[in-house]
Design goal:
Elements (H helix, E strand, L loop, with lengths): L3 E3 L3 E8 L18 E4 L1 H8 L5 E3 L7 H13 L2 E2 L10 E6 L5 E6 L8 H5 L8 E5 H5 L4 H9 L6 E5 L9 H10 L2 E5 H11 L4 H6 L7 E5 L5 E4 L7 E3 L12 H14 L4 H16 L10 H10 L1
Parallel strand pairs: 1-4, 1-8, 2-6, 4-5, 8-9, 9-10, 10-11
Antiparallel strand pairs: 2-3, 6-7, 11-12, 12-13
Helix pairs in contact: 1-9, 5-6, 9-10
Organism: Bowdeniella nasicola
Keywords: Kinase, Transferase
GO molecular function: kinase activity
Length: 307
């Protein structure tokens, strides 16, 4: 049976709810509910909740943060197949504004230190889906490892890439080989704009298409508009409408979308129906506080049955 293998690094998320951003040199009183597991965990938990066998290949450490990540993985039935390094998992400070928009500040830990030997030993099988996050292509210590691994995946293995918000900080020698190999690329409107700036191509799908293969599916997540998709080169971009949800916290909504799209494709659904389910997952997740709030398969089924 096909498996979902993620190279996306997990971090410990420290969410802060702000009334507004402080001025430079100023201060603001925030509210926090304590640390939760986030980062790459958002995607693997989303996939696992759809009933897909899910593996995490990024490193974990020996400290308290990594112990919390391990407990979260175990609770979701996710197998860790990466290496264990002396040290600890990094932190992500998530600053959430009243409208649900969030801004991140990340400190790196052992999750950003995979080795070529460890990734070369990953048992990738025909039919598997491999997921890569742009974050890990941007970190200097992980970029060469993740890029080489993803760019050289064997035939019969699908590669999904989520560019992430710092796609413009990824070195071309690490980004281009991965995007040339990927079968599905997912990014939000802001990230698509960054790709347009990077390539000098103003039309966003044309900019994305300049970096990926003709057959690659290109998805641009557009919040309340839904998701735009160009199935292949030359196809007219199509909008898959969103459903109506009340935004509380957008943290991890893109990850929920990507995870459910991936799981749905692995279940044999066509791309448009997979995106439709992803739209439901993203919408339901924004109504919940926290980073890893993707609904289960049955919750999505029930919502679609009622709508």
């Amino acid at each position: 049976m096909a498996r979902f293998i993620s190279t996306g690094s997990c971090v410990l998320d420290l969410p802060m709810n702000l009334p507004h951003f402080p001025t430079r040199g100023g201060d603001v009183i925030a509210k926090s509910a304590g640390a939760v597991v986030g980062g790459g965990f958002n995607v693997v938990s989303a996939v696992a909740r759809q009933g897909i066998e899910t593996l995490l290949a990024s490193p974990l450490g020996t400290g308290a943060n990594s112990a919390q990540v391990r407990l979260a993985l175990e609770a979701e039935g996710i197998e860790h197949v990466g290496e264990t390094l002396v040290g600890d998992t990094g932190l992500c400070l998530t600053l959430r504004e009243p409208d649900g928009e969030r801004t991140f500040i990340t400190t790196l830990g052992v999750e950003a230190e995979p080795s070529h030997d460890e990734f070369d030993s990953i048992d990738v099988r025909e039919g598997d889906v491999v997921y890569v996050s742009g974050y890990d292509l941007a970190y200097p210590s992980s970029a060469p490892v993740v890029s080489r691994f993803a760019a050289n995946l064997p035939e019969g293995v699908r590669l999904i890439v989520d560019t992430g918000p710092i796609v413009n900080e990824i070195a071309p020698e690490h980004l281009k080989p991965v995007l040339a190999r990927c079968d599905l690329i997912s990014l939000n409107r802001r990230e698509a704009g960054l790709v347009a700036d990077m390539t000098g191509v103003s039309e966003r799908f044309a900019a994305i298409r300049s970096l990926v293969s003709e057959e690659c599916h290109a998805l641009v997540r557009a919040g309340s508009e839904g998701c735009w998709v160009q199935v292949r080169a030359g196809a007219v971009p199509e909008r898959v409408p969103a459903f109506s949800f009340t935004v509380v916290d957008t943290t991890g909504s893109g990850d929920a979308h990507t995870g459910v799209v991936a799981a749905s494709l692995m279940d044999g659904l066509d791309l448009i129906e997979a995106i439709r389910r992803g739209n439901v997952a993203a919408g339901m997740s924004v109504e919940r506080l926290g980073p890893a709030r993707c609904p289960s398969r049955s919750e999505i089924d029930d919502y679609l049955a009622a709508h």
